[in-house]
Give the backbone structure.
Amino acid sequence: MQSGQFPIRFWNYASIEQMDASCVQDWADAGMTVAMSPSFGAEPEHVRKMGEILDAAHERDIRVILCDQRSYWGALTANGEEAYRREFQQAVEAFGEYPATLGFHVGDEPGSEEFGDACRAFRIQTRQWQRVCDGGQQQPVGQHTS
């Protein structure tokens, strides 16, 4: 997204099986500048398709919030904090260097009993994502060249 460009966003509730990189042109035609990705997992085919979507989004100056199932707060609840950190780090390593990557979706509408896990997941993501932006092993977001 160019500096000074007004962000036009949308939420996407489709799965990666229902979308591919050709859908990004529809986003661009509608004037979108920030998109929510389709929901996807860590399967190699999902990672490959998501990479193609991110490349297509970058070509059209669209930033993407990734709906990687490893980033959802529910994964923290189900698998514990150590597993969540490891899985989320894998997601960051897979997608953090793509210029179109804006960030990761933590989840939606936690109830009062889940709110603590949602907040913990957000804090974990913030710390791990900041390492990317501060020049850890990967380049800061937006600096990837293919």
In short: The CA atoms of residues 83 and 108 lie 20 Å apart. The chain has a mean pLDDT of 87.
